[in-house]
Write a structure and sequence with these properties.
Blueprint lengths: L6 H7 L3 E4 L2 E4 L8 H27 L4 E4 L1 H15 L3 E5 L12 H13 L2 E4 L11 E3 L14 H7 L7 E6 L8 H12 L5 E6 L5 H10 L6 E4 L7 H7 L2 E4 L8 H8 L4 E4 L2 H6 L6 E4 L4 H13 L4 H8 L4 H15 L1
Parallel strand pairs: 3-4, 4-5, 5-6, 7-8, 7-10, 8-9, 10-11, 11-12
Antiparallel strand pairs: 1-2
Helix pairs in contact: 2-3, 5-8, 6-11, 9-12
């Protein structure tokens, strides 16, 4: 967690470890240096913070693989730890290689390139993330298809106390600048001027929450835009089923797993164009793609999506490609090949 004010008291509130779903999770605390050297310093600091934890765990459990998620600082620290303990290392890359390196220093790029080339296996979530090297494997994130299922939309709306007459748009994700949520609200404002039957539910938490509440208020959209940060994970499938459309306005390069969950619930996806979303929404039978950072085009695609009759069975079939059981098996196969 990022500590910005009252940092000493907040630092004490961060647990050093906790149990999540019967798994012990450790939270190493790091200090941030000036921005120009922060990424490199974070990798070094994370290594030294993890070293005593990893040494103790390895002594008691003798684990066989180190698996990191992300290049810096996680991948850097994991690579150093794997070299020290002489263990195989796997790195899962979350973003495209063209999206997250443009602002990095030449030195950092060289380190990244060296690590990628000299670890046992790189895992990416799609072909768009892969750099086509021989030590890359594509393993798309999976979802629990037993949890995310298509059910009767009207019944779900009644259960959630939602209108059965309104056209409902759903956004589910973290409220960050790269989520593109501001473009969604701007697009919604354009639509709401002519469509008084339209409502938007923004489900998620994040640093933009207060700013979004102010924006909605300033645009006088309070009655038709609701920001909900209290939706339990168990209720997410209900909300995804309740929507006429799932909107993914994001401008980031991470795998949009929430779009897969929406499809599994039989809800069509309106997303912004990217290498990732083009894989999930390959044609107009599954959803529609709008230009990035273009609220007018996004509004037009939403309008088209609301006017169209969708084949929910086809949407569910598309989502079945991303079964969590298949994902787990592929990762297990990679582990077996690395040990």
């Amino acid at each position: 967690p990022h500590v910005t004010t009252n940092w000493i008291s907040q630092l004490r509130q961060i647990p050093k470890r906790e149990i999540v779903h019967n798994i012990t999770v450790y939270y190493p605390q790091l200090f941030y240096l000036p921005k120009k050297i922060s990424k490199m310093s974070l990798g070094i600091f994370l290594f030294f913070r993890l070293l005593p934890i990893v040494r103790q765990l390895h002594k008691s459990h003798r684990f066989q693989i180190i698996h990191a998620f992300g290049e810096f600082p996680e991948g850097f620290a994991a690579y150093a730890l794997s070299a020290l303990f002489r263990l195989p290392i796997i790195i899962t890359h979350r973003r495209t290689f063209t999206s997250n390196k443009l602002k990095e220093s030449y030195f950092l790029k060289k380190i990244n390139s060296y690590i990628i080339s000299n670890i046992n296996r790189n895992i990416t979530s799609s072909d768009a993330l892969s750099n086509q090297s021989s030590n890359f494997s594509v393993v798309a994130p999976g979802i629990d298809l037993l949890k995310y299922q298509s059910v009767d939309r009207l019944e779900i709306r009644k259960k959630l106390c939602l209108s059965t007459q309104k056209q409902i748009l759903i956004f589910r994700g973290t409220l960050l600048p790269e989520s593109g949520i501001n473009y969604l609200i701007d697009a919604f404002e354009l639509l709401a001027k002519k469509n008084k039957n339209l409502v938007l539910y923004i489900i998620g938490r994040g640093i933009l929450k207060d700013a979004l509440i102010r924006k909605v208020s300033n645009l006088k959209l309070d009655k038709c835009v609701t920001i909900k940060d209290d939706v339990d994970d168990r209720a997410v499938p209900l909300w995804l089923n309740a929507g006429d459309l799932f909107i993914l306005p994001g401008i980031n390069a991470e795998f949009p797993v929430n779009a897969i969950k929406a499809l599994a619930c039989g809800t069509p996806v309106i997303a912004c164009k990217s290498e990732m979303t083009s894989e999930i929404v390959p044609d107009s039978k599954i959803g529609l793609l709008a230009n990035q950072r273009d609220c007018q085009d996004l509004a037009m695609k939403i309008k088209m999506g609301l006017a169209r009759r969708w084949n929910r069975k086809l949407l569910v079939k598309r989502a079945q490609k991303y079964n969590i059981d298949d994902t787990v098996q592929r990762i297990q196969d990679i582990y077996d090949n690395c040990t």
